[in-house]
Design goal:
InterPro entries: Thiolase, Thiolase-like, Thiolase_C_2, Thiolase_N. This protein has 381 residues and is α/β, with parallel strands linked by helices. It has helices at residues 22-37, 61-64, 80-93, 124-128, 134-149, 153-167, 181-186, 214-220, 255-267, 284-293, 302-307, 324-328, 332-348; strands at 4-15, 46-50, 70-74, 99-107, 189-191, 194-195, 204-213, 226-234, 276-279, 362-369, 373-380. The protein has 13 helices and eleven strands.
Length: 381
């Protein structure tokens, strides 16, 4: 079976864009990706589109062209974009198609995400008691983790500081100004131990990736950015996830543990073989926990990793080189695809001021969504 390759990428900047709908921003991203791949819309044989709050992605054919293309909508929490990509690469791997599209976009209202208990098979009282407030859950989760593994609040701040510093060099990022560590730590508290600079914000934006079989990629004359692994998994028993109404004393792993292990097995490499990584950072503690859940370090080692700068652009494992969700914001449908977009930029050597040195050859992305869904990809050039 030949590899699936990414032959075109496009992005509409994240943040807030008055006057443009989510679909509009998705269309911008698709047109960029088509130009990048050197093809026209009628060449696309199928598409998977992700959106949570901005309408059905398949409606963009009104703008792109009524070609009768197969277009399937995906809605899977924060992992929607990663799930769309997983589905698209499977369509090519099957041998049914040679050229397809994964696109994601969103345009969320101002304020926090408004998750409803019924959407997660939970009773109304769960929301009435305040348990659907994600800032509280994530704060409780990281507080427990910090206690168990010796992680300091300063380390949480270092994650955010790095994110904003990296985003200065990412034209698609929302927040592109550095924020000093002391300002991050002393900022107004949202949910202890998190200050306002330690959470991402709902946002807007769109990302499109064009996938091709290796044969088609060679015909197009594109550099071969191979999708060596793409996995998507749900939670196992005993996992501790957002909107889970209870926790087992003996935790049984997580969706990320499973998806990550599957991805490394598919790619035939281990965590030590990854040159750059984009990890879900809904809040600064998520990046810390996901470093371990994805196998890059042991629980508790993050304290030393961050203090020594190992996750910086020039460090041992650069993490979230464009600022991640903390700096870019999180339009749910586009967020996971943004990670892969950034990895393609890095493998092409087009990162500018945020470019990882040494011509990286492998890149890893991980996205996590409620109520315990994770998607992982590994790229190789």
């Amino acid at each position: 079976m030949s590899d699936v390759c990414i032959v075109g990428i496009g992005i509409h900047p994240f943040g807030r864009t008055d006057g443009l709908s989510g679909v509009d921003q998705g269309v911008v991203a698709v047109r960029q990706a088509l130009d990048d791949a050197g093809i026209d819309w009628p060449a696309i044989q199928f598409a998977y589109g992700a959106s949570d709050a901005a309408g059905n992605p398949d409606t963009m054919v009104d703008r792109l062209g009524l070609t009768g293309v197969q277009f399937i909508n995906v809605r899977n929490g924060c992992a929607a974009g990663g799930s769309a990509l997983f589905s698209a690469q499977m369509a090519i791997k099957s041998g049914e198609y040679d050229l397809g599209l994964a696109v994601g976009f969103d345009k969320h209202p101002h304020g926090a995400f408004n998750a409803l208990p019924s959407e997660y098979n939970l009773p109304d009282w769960y929301g009435e008691a305040g348990y659907m407030i994600t800032t509280q859950f994530f704060a409780c989760k990281i507080m427990r983790y910090m206690h168990q593994h010796g992680i300091s609040r300063e380390t949480l701040g270092r994650v955010s500081e790095k994110a904003f510093r990296n985003a200065v060099h990412a034209p698609h990022a929302w927040r592109r100004e550095p924020v000093p560590l002391d300002v991050i730590l002393d900022a107004p508290m949202v949910s202890d131990p998190y200050s306002k600079f330690m959470f991402c914000s709902p946002a807007e934006g769109g990302v499109a990736l064009i996938l091709a079989s290796e044969k088609k990629a060679r015909e197009l004359g594109k550099p071969l950015i191979r999708l060596k692994a793409a996995t998507m998994r749900t939670r196992p028993p005993g996992s501790f996830e957002v909107f889970a109404p209870s926790i087992d004393v003996d935790r049984g792993g997580s969706a990320t543990n499973i998806a990550s292990a599957d991805a490394f097995r598919q790619a035939g490499i281990g965590p030590e073989g990854i040159a750059v990584a984009q990890l879900q950072d809904t809040e600064s503690g998520a990046e810390i926990m996901h470093m371990a859940e994805n196998g890059f370090c042991r629980d508790g080692e993050q304290e030393q990793w961050l203090a020594e700068g190992r996750t910086e652009i020039g460090g041992r494992l650069p993490v979230n080189t464009d600022g991640g969700c903390l700096a870019c914001g999180e339009p749910i449908g586009a967020s996971g695809l943004r990670q892969v977009y950034e990895n393609v930029v890095q493998l092409r050597g087009h990162g500018g001021g945020r470019q990882v040195p040494g011509e990286p050859k492998t890149a890893y992305s991980h996205v996590y969504g409620a109520p315990g869904v994770s998607a992982v990809t590994i790229l190789e050039r």
